[in-house]
Every structure is written in structure tokens, then in C-alpha cells.
Amino acid sequence: MRANPLLGPGLIAFAAVLWATDAPFRYPMLQKLDTVSIVFLEHVFATIALLLWAWVKRPRGLFKFSARGWLGLVLIGAGASAGATLLFTASFRYVNPSVAILLQKLQPVLVMLLALLFLGERPKAGFYGWAVLALGAGTVLSFPTLDFSFIRKGLDVHSRGVVFALGAAAIWASSTVAGKALLNRSHAPVLTFWRYTFGLATLAVLMVRSGQGIPLAVVQSEGMVLSFAYLSFISGLLAMVCYYGGLSRATASIATFVELLYPITAVIVNTVVLQTPLDPIQAVAAALLLFAVTRISLLN
User: Fold this and answer.
1) Helix/strand/coil (H, E, C) string of 282-295?
2) Structural domain of residue 270, as residue ranges?
3) Residue 114: CB partners within 8 Å, gap ≥ 6?
4) Is 66 inside any structural domain?
5) Mean pLDDT by 10 residues, the chain (300 residues)
6) What pTM did the predictor assign?
């Protein structure tokens, strides 16, 4: 039977929409819990599900990594799954969630620059022009008034949120470069398992070092349990499974366009649900940013 050509793009689109519904659940949590507790509990839910998957499936190659491979997994888990998610979640306290989400689209630019520095991969012609446009648009999106006095005076509330969001983008970009080699030796579900496992271990250490307990009365409330379940299973694991399934059935160029549903839908959802619209100049900058990073992705 011939495969449905719409299945791959459809799965990617579904994953993008699920990711876009993350903020309305994550943002209200910050009013009741600290950032580390939120990301820790999110990992607890997801890791339990992955442990059950590993027990039932017993996938081959789950433990077959070299010393360098294990180091890469630890870095991806501690950095991308734990550190970047902490920064991304914390950025919601200080900046419009839509801005934090849109700044993640700078990752292709950062991946290219990191690959140039550490892997010696030269970008194709035209990259630098689009990269300058993307970085310029990202700057206007972050600071629409072009007020950079925080450089001299120190980080204010807004600039702290931008730094957190860009920090998350940089870590996720570096994990993409590090994960390239690992995907040549293993499968995405196995890497996902170890990513969450090492991420949870890192967050557990941070929880102990902080000395802060988790307020069970808050966590056990019906709304919070449902929110954690949604972040862990729906916008987390389910979205990731759909995304990888779609990538295996769609070309990179189609995937690049379909993935634009994520930031576009997120801005709409956040505007309607969270009442956090972008300023007009930010909306124009966002459109230029998405256009530039799409062109960068298509170059590759």
C-alpha cells in the first residue's frame, strides 16, 4: 500500500500545534511554584513513562554507548533537557512568553555558527546575509524601543528574560550539534530516554542543593496535576514522537515550512488565552525573523 504523502507533514503540524499549547499551562504554574520544581516534576512524569516503555520494549542498544557517547548523553540531558528548560521556563517570569518562544527560532543560526566553530562545517552561500537579518529582527523583537541601557546599568527585569530565552536557545542549539553524532549510532527514542533520565538526575541534584521542598498541597491540586500531565505527556512526549515520526516521512524543506506553525500558533494562543499580544513593531520583527530562519533552513 502506498504511503499517504500527507502523513509526514500532518504529524509535524500536529506536534507544532501541541508545542504551541505549552505556555498556557506552564505560565500559570510560575505563580505558585518555583522554576526548578516545575521542570523537575515535568521530568518525573515523563521519565516514569519512558521507564515503562524501556521495560516493555527492551530496545536494543539502550546501554551500548562508548565513553564519549555517554558523555554526550549526559551533556544533552543536563544541558538541553534540564538547563535549557529551566532557562526557558524562567524567562516567562520576565518577558512576554511569545517573545521567549520566538527567540527559540534563532537556533538554526546558532547551530550553523557552532557547527562552523566546532565541526568545521562551512555554511552555504547566503547564510551570513540571512543570519544578520535574523539576528537584527531578534534584537528588535526583544527590545522594540532599542533601549540598551541595561548593558551599562545591569540587567533589568525585561533584559533578564531575554537573556534567559537566548540562553535556552544557545543550549538547545549546542545539543543539536552534539546529538548529530549520537543519532548516527542510536535511535531517537533511546536518546530521548537518556535525555530525560539524565535531565531528571540533574534536576534532582538542584532540588537537593536548593534545600526547597515541593509544596505537595499545591502540586496535588486537580488543576496542577492535569497541567503537569499535559506538559509531560501531550506537549512533551507525544509531540516529540509525532515530530520524529513526521520527519521520517517528510522532506526537510516541507518540515521547515510546517514547523512555522509552532511560533505562529503560539503567538495566537498566548494572545487569546494569556492576553499577552506583541507590539506592532514586534509583530513585524517576528515575521522577518521567521522568514530569515526559514531561508537559512532551506539552504541546508
Assistant:
1) HHHHHHHHHHHHHH
2) 7-299
3) 173, 174, 177
4) yes
5) 74 91 91 89 92 89 88 91 94 93 87 76 82 92 83 81 92 76 77 91 91 73 84 89 79 76 92 92 94 81
6) 0.85
